[in-house]
Every structure is written in structure tokens, then in C-alpha cells.
Amino acid sequence: MAVEKKKKMGRPIKYTKEVVEKLADQLLEFLYEEPFPFLNKFATKHMLSVDVFSANKNFTENEYFSKALKIYKQTFVTILIEGAATGGLVPSMVIFTLKNIAGWRDTPLIDNSVHNHYTKVDVKINDNTKLPPTHKSGNRISGQEQIPSISSGT
To answer: Where do the H-state alpha helices sit in 34-148?
Structure first.
């Protein structure tokens, strides 16, 4: 009795290498033909979900498609920025689009003008040397200022 090999069950691969690379070429054509080449529009035109480009390993592992998608993203961001800079697009709409589609984020402004760097200095003081008292702020108190007293509450 010969042992039969079981046939693989499941669906055949829908997105073969050839199909994915053809879509990559069509994506780049779409990028240069459309005035506002949104990826959703391209996916809908080809009856696909946008998620398939990032979730399906046939797309993510295909180097040709990955390069085409990277070129698409960089060029699309450039189109939006140039449109806002030249007055062809409303800048607030471009900012909103870049935050929601291109993943841009606001970064808080950091004030680098104040430097709080402390240097440790070893100072040796004789026991009989008396220094003026210090205030809460760390400033030396002159003889005219009053030193706050701590009461025990009794």
C-alpha cells in the first residue's frame, strides 16, 4: 500500500509576486497621474483595503513593493507641503492630513536657554568657622534679614 501525500488545504495565494509587483508599478503611476494621490483612493480603485499593504506578508516582504510604497509616502508628503507653501492648499488642512495620514506628531518646544547643571565642589571647613545662615532659597542671609524660626507648637 502506497502512502498518499495529502494535498495542501486552504486558499491559493491571492497576491503572487507578479501581482504585487504590478500593483507597485500601478501605485507609482497613480502617484504621478493624480493631483492628490491618496492611498485609500488607489486601494479602492483596485478593490483592496489599505490595511492589506501593511498586514499581508506578500506585500510587506516584497522588496519592490516596499520601495514603491516608500517612494509614494515621501512624494505624497512633498506634494502636500509644497501645496501649502505655494498657497494651493490650506496649511491647516495639510497639517491635519500629515498628522492623520503620514504619522506626523507635534513635539513640545523645549527651552534650552536655562541650564540647570550643577558641579559638585568639595569644601573643607574648620569647626570654628561660622558661615552665615541660609534661607530656603539657598541664598545667604545678611544681618538685616530675619531668620524664620521653627516652633515646636507647644
So the answer is: 39-45, 51-55, 57-60, 63-86, 91-100
Q: CA-to-CA distance for 12 and 47, rounded, in angstroms?
A: 18
Among 43, 14, 17, 16, residue whose Cα is nearest residue 30: 43
Summarize pLDDT for 61-92 with one digit per residue, the tens.
Answer: 889 999 998 898 888 888 888 888 998 889 99
What length is written for the chain?
Answer: 154
Give the count of beta carbons closer than 10 Å to the beta carbon of residue 53. 20
Instruction: Confirm if 114 and 100 have CB atoms less than 8 A apart.
Output: no
State the cell numbers at 103.
Answer: 504619522
Instruction: Identify whether the C-beta of residue 65 lies closer than 8 Å to the C-beta of residue 59.
Output: yes
Q: How is residue 118 annotated by DSSP?
A: -
Cell digits of residue 145: 534679614
Question: The pTM is what?
Answer: 0.56
